[in-house]
């Protein structure tokens, strides 16, 4: 009876009792883009499409920061009126051990509001005092901070120290109530050095999500999520492996680090379609796909659909653990199940906490191109021995 009561309580409160859940040694963090509900069919992604058995942590993106320095919804109709938050945390009714987190920030939020929020002890306290209430109100198990990036894009140098102070204050408030505190942090070492006091930041985080993507160049073809360098690449080329080494050398425990893998590609329009190797000149970003509808970006679902319909040429860069494909004047670098497996095996061999997928709603979630839905997510689970 006691076991049944505890499980019932965990469902009612929405927060899992740790003693009823196995300790996860290999985490799979699944980010969900709340705006995916607005994509055109068949790429419309609803919360009920999420299969929590493939995820140890689910992260809802994004909440934002208003000009008063308070965390708030960025889409009231979707998040609250239409029950986005409620449906998302409600996944724990069937999967009580999965952790549901709410992410704040994202690229489109910029940096200036966050810089102002962390500027003084009073402004930090004003933000922190309301965060816990927000998480409790909407039944989330923790907070994920995605400030891109302290000291950049409208920030100031003092952000580096103030960000660490914010995390310390948040941890002090969240830990007694058994809420998690995580953050998505940059991969290029130059940004890491400028944005974070790594030792202090890692001291207060349960998990560090390394954003191992968007590292491509703008004016020539290059892969955007390289694990390691190819022999032909410059030593200055940023890689995910460099980021892992930098974080661990500067105070992070490897067991905190989560390797971020993209479920999307970065694309270009070639200046000369006969020159399509790495470093080829480009006219600009690639053509927008039918679902994300953004030049230079293609969801994995858009990529695999196009490749199932047209004849593309594909090259596998094994050190990068990335593939690139080209057809006429279009060129895209991306991850598929094979490269996801390689990256996940690396994370496991390095003793990292696990991997995260940005985002599961651009995986082939219908299984249109593959024999099963969520091929990238499943590849990560298999490589970790979770399936």
Question: Could you characterize what this model shows?
Answer:
- It is a single chain.
- The strands form 2 sheets. This protein has an 8-stranded parallel beta barrel, surrounded by 4 helices. Strands 9, 10, 11, 12, 13 and 14 form a 6-stranded antiparallel beta sheet that branches.
- With 387 residues, the chain is α/β, with parallel strands linked by helices.
- The two termini are 31 Å apart.
- It is globular and about 60 Å long.
- Helices cover 31% and strands 21% of the residues.
Sequence-ordered SSE layout with sheet pairings:
Layout: H1 2-13, E1 27-33, E2 57-65, E3 71-73, H2 76-81, H3 84-89, E4 99-105, H4 112-117, H5 121-138, E5 142-146, H6 159-174, E6 180-185, H7 189-195, H8 198-204, E7 207-210, H9 240-249, E8 257-262, E9 264-270, E10 282-285, E11 297-299, H10 300-309, E12 313-317, E13 322-327, E14 330-334, H11 337-349, E15 354-358, H12 375-383
Parallel strand pairs: 1-2, 1-15, 2-4, 4-5, 5-6, 6-7, 7-8, 8-15
Antiparallel strand pairs: 2-3, 9-10, 9-11, 9-14, 12-13, 13-14
The number of helical segments is: 12
Radius of gyration: 20 Å
Strand order of the largest sheet: 1-2-4-5-6-7-8-15
- Going by helix content, strand content and strand pairing, the class is alpha/beta
Q: State the end-to-end distance.
A: 31 Å
Shape: globular
Mean pLDDT value: 94
Proportion of strand residues: 15-25%
Total strand segments:
15
Largest sheet: 8 strands, parallel, barrel
Helical residues, percent:
25-40%
């Amino acid at each position: 009876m006691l076991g049944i009561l505890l499980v019932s309580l965990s469902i009612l409160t929405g927060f899992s009792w740790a003693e009823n859940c196995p300790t996860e040694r290999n985490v799979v963090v699944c980010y969900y883009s709340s705006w995916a509900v607005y994509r055109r069919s068949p790429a419309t992604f609803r919360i009920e499409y999420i299969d929590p058995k493939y995820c140890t942590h689910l992260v809802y993106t994004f909440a934002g920061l208003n000009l008063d320095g308070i965390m708030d919804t960025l889409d009231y109709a979707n998040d609250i009126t239409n029950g986005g938050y409620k449906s998302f945390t409600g996944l724990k009714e069937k999967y009580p051990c999965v952790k549901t987190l709410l992410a704040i920030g994202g690229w489109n939020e910029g940096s200036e509001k966050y810089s102002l929020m962390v500027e003084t002890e009073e402004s930090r306290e004003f933000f922190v005092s309301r965060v816990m209430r927000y998480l409790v109100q909407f039944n989330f198990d923790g907070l994920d901070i995605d400030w891109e990036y302290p000291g950049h894009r409208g920030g100031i140098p003092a952000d580096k120290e103030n960000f660490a102070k914010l995390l310390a204050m948040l941890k002090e408030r969240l830990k007694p109530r058994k809420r998690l505190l995580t953050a998505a942090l940059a991969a290029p070492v130059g940004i890491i050095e400028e944005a974070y006091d790594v030792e202090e930041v890692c001291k207060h985080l349960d998990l560090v999500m390394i954003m191992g993507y968007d590292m491509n160049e703008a004016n020539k073809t290059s892969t955007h999520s390289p694990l390691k360098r190819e022999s032909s690449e410059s030593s200055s080329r940023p890689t995910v492996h460099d980021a892992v080494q930098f974080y661990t050398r500067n105070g992070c425990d490897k067991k905190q680090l989560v390797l971020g893998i993209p479920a999307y590609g970065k694309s270009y329009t070639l200046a000369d379609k006969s020159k399509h190797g790495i470093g080829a000149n480009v006219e600009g970003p690639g053509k927008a796909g039918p679902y994300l509808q953004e030049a230079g970006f293609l969801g994995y679902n858009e990529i695999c659909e196009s490749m199932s319909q047209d004849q593309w040429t594909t090259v596998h860069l094994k050190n990068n653990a990335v593939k690139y494909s080209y057809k006429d004047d279009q060129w895209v670098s991306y991850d598929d199940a094979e490269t996801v497996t390689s990256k996940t095996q690396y994370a496991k061999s390095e003793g990292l906490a696990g991997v995260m997928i940005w985002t599961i709603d651009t995986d082939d979630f219908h299984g249109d191109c593959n024999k099963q839905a969520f091929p990238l997510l499943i590849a990560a689970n298999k490589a970790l021995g979770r399936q």
